[in-house]
Amino acid sequence: GKGPLRRAPAQAAKARRPMGVVRSPFEPTETRGLTRSGDLSLMMPSEAALLGGGKIMKTLLKAKYAERTLLTYERSGWYEETTKVLERTEIRPSATRGPIIVCLDTSGSMMGARETIAKALTLECLRQAHKEKRACYVYAFSGPGDCQEMELSVTPKSMEKLLLFLTMSFNGGTDVDEPLWRSLRRLREVGWSDADMLLVTDGEIAPPNPDLVVSLNSAKEELDLKVHGLLVGDAGDPEVMKSICSVVHKFEAWDKVTPKRSWS
C-alpha cells in the first residue's frame, strides 16, 4: 500500500523482491520537471513551434521524436512494484499507513452537539482503523489529572470500554498538556513511530507548556509527525491550535447534528 509521505530508505525496482513503491511514468500523477522523451503529448511549446517552421524545422522535430530527445514535461508518480531497498533516504510514501492517536477533548464546554461529534468521530476512527488494519489509541482528556486512555479495536474488552465511553457525559476543565505528553511518549514505543495525531477540541484550551511545543516540533522534524486539529467550535485563541497542530480543520456541518425544531 501507499501511506503518507515520510523520510524513509529509497527503493529501486528489482524483480523477485518484496513489493514496494518506486517513482514511475506508469503512474503520471504529478509534474516533476523537464526531461527528454518521445511523448508528443507532453512536449514543450518550444518544440511544438517547430511544426510552424519550414521543412528543415519539421524534419528536426521528426528526428527528435525518433530519437526520443524532445524536451517534455516529466510526469510520474508512486507505483507499486517489486523493489530492493537502497542505502540513501528520500521523502516517499511509507509502506503502510501508520497508527492513529486521537486526543479527544471531553471537557464541560464540549457538551451538546460537540459531544455528539466527538463520539461519532471515535466510532469513525475505529471503523477506519479496522478497515485499514491500523492501530488506534484514544486519550480522552478534560481537567488536570483527568486523562483516560483507550485502545480502539474490535475485541470484546475494547468494545466494552468504547460503549462505556459513548454513554458517559462530558464535564470538567481542560488540560491539553497531559494527553499530548502521553502521545509523544507513545510515539517512542515500537510500532508507533509512524503514527499521526488528531486533536479534537472546541478551542477552549490554554496555551501548552513551551517545553511541550518544543518536543512536538522535534517529533514533527525527526519522525515527520503530522498533528491534525479538528475545531468543533469558535471559542479560544486560534493561535494556540496553530502552535500545536500541523494543520487545523474546522467542523462546519452543524445542521447534521443539531436537532430540527418541531412545529407540531
What would your notes on this structure say?
The protein has 264 residues and is an alpha/beta fold. Helices cover 30% and strands 30% of the residues. It has seven helices and ten strands. The chain has helices at 45-48, 55-67, 113-131, 156-167, 177-187, 210-222, 238-244, and strands at residues 5-13, 19-24, 30-37, 70-93, 100-105, 136-141, 147-152, 196-201, 227-231, 247-250. The strands form two sheets. Strands 7-6-5-8-9-10 form a six-stranded mixed β-sheet. Strands 1, 2, 3 and 4 form a four-stranded antiparallel β-sheet that branches. Strand 9 (227-231), helix 7 (238-244) and strand 10 form a beta-alpha-beta unit. Helix 5 packs parallel to helix 6. It is elongated, with a radius of gyration of 25 Å. The N and C termini lie far apart (53 Å). The model has no long low-confidence stretch (mean pLDDT 85).
Number of DSSP-assigned strands? 10
Stretches where pLDDT falls below 50 for ≥5 residues? none
Largest sheet: 6 strands, mixed
Element-by-element helix/strand order: EEEHHEEHEEHHEHEHE
Estimated share of beta-strand residues: 25-35%
Q: pLDDT average, as an integer?
A: 85
Strand order of the largest sheet: 7-6-5-8-9-10
- How widely separated are the two ends? 53 Å
- Rg from Cα: 25 Å
Shape assignment: elongated
Name the structural class: alpha/beta
Count of individual helical segments: 7
Instruction: Give the % helix.
Output: 25-40%
Oligomer: single chain
